[in-house]
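Feature request disguised as a bug report, sorry. It would help if multi-protein outputs had a clear separator. Right now it looks like this:
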Amino acid sequence: MKPKAHILPVIILSQFACTSLWFAGNAIVDQLAAKTGLGAEIIGYVLSAVQFGFITGTLVFAFLMIADRFSPTNVFLVCAILGASSNLVLLFETLSKWELLFARFGTGFFLAGIYPVGMKIAADYYEKGLGRALGYLVGALVLGTAFPYLVKGMAWGANDGIVVKTTAFLALIGGFALWLFVPNGPFRKPSKKLQLSAGPRLFKAPEFRKAAIGYFGHMWELYAFWAFTPLALQTFNRLRDGGFSVPLGAFAVIAMGGISCMLGGLFSQRFGSAKVALVSLSTSGIFCLVSPLLFQLHPFIFMACWCVWGMAVTADSPQFSTLVATHAPTEQKGTALTLVNCIGFAISIVSIQLVSFLIPKIDTPYVFLILTMGPMVGLWQLTRKNH
């Protein structure tokens, strides 16, 4: 049975609205640095706290099989409310380093009930054409991630409070919209009991394992690329007098990834998810390798290349998730998506902190080379044959 016409648009808009919480702290990082007294290391700390919260949340959700045992739309709503509440802590006039990190951790924890659960809801509706549906859905996540930079770059968003309030309000709207208009999907098969061995069993299936490790390689690159794109723009402005607006430039680069996710979803209908993931990961890996050379280019060409990189680095994400969901048992899709997300985001913390560690030690144009390892591992998995 074909889902009603409003189902996918509501899921997409709700995902966009709720994931705007993700980079709200990074968009106002200068103001947060002034409040807490942290230096340049705050970039890595603020995002890593969200990632660590997300990892903890996904571990709890996967271990307890929350998305498979309970109504995913109810889970989504509760997490949207609590995530928005955690985000509002950033409005405190005085904020210690630990209060900041705990607030960002809380936001990440509740995002674990939004991002993978949103994908689970889509999988419950779209047994066929899941690659296209998840392409739109992850595209919405990417646009939501970019949105705080857009708000910050606008004249009315100069006040950090506007960024925080806007993203918190959007998250509440998204949570209630999905809860009101998207009932549990027709292909939902709830798990009746807790199965503590579900995670290890999933990784015994060769196709599932390939998809998961490919996703892990993608995640080594993705969030570090996003987190340090503002630094890349600042560095280019300093070296080549680029004149870029850093918030608007960061929004453009990340938002282009949202478009590529949607295009990748359409291409997956014709060429298959594995092929789209392979091309996307290969392209972003090439950009990792040549990244120091990009800083020598004309400003227009530099920005064009960085935007294409922003497209390539995200287009494979929904296709890896599609492969993961496809190769997991029906009653464990929510757990599979949540568990793979959990491990992928743990890997992203390592790459973010590694780049943070290297920035004071080597010239900024060279730090993006370290991201090459992710695409290499992902491509190795995607191209190897099962034995």
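(second protein starts here, but nothing in the output says so)
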Amino acid sequence: MAKILIADDNEQITSILSNYAQKAGFETIIALDGEDTLAKFHKYAAEIQIILLDVMMPKKDGFEVCREIRRTSMVPIIMITARGEDFEKIMGLDIGADDYIVKPFSSGEVMARVRAILRRLKIEQQAKNSFVIDNLSVDLDEYTVLVNDEKINLTKKEVELLWTLAKNKNKVFTRENLLDSIWGYDYYGDSRTVDSHIKRLRAKLEAVSHENWDIKTIWGVGYRFEEMADEE
């Protein structure tokens, strides 16, 4: 049975989420602090399909835990925060979380997001997970991006943004399209999340030469990946 790791120091919350997860067919693993979370993750890493990770936990907070997990694993992580400040959401996504949800929340919504992320991953795994365009190489199995054979250090979401745009070159994506495709749920997020990730992705790509392709802004609509050689 697929396992879900639920990490929160509030036992009432872990109990409620565990009940919902078990009804959805998951076997649950509960952790009540950051160190316990990492210990149980390393013990069951091969079996855990997704992690629900509270930000404010004793011993190690959720951000520390997420960073450590991302050193060795791309398992999906949904961050749970008691506050809704943008900087916390952005930090969580930047260090590799797949999604975030703010307390108080509906347990049904949490499980809907879990299902959406796992559906998206299943579709991705069924597709070819690497491609090359000009001097750009993207491998979604390893989450690596090379330009001129030089590795570009991108976050998980930045790799997925580049993958989605470049695999569908010249197609215009609205911000809502990208939220749905990459964050895996239907417009629960803020479109500014897409803009901030595109801005950081472009800044990293500008450090290397890529004269034959670029990510273009389509004003009033969204973004698209253009390969200039196609226009000659």
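Even a blank line would do. Unrelated, but nice: The longest strand covers residues 48-54.
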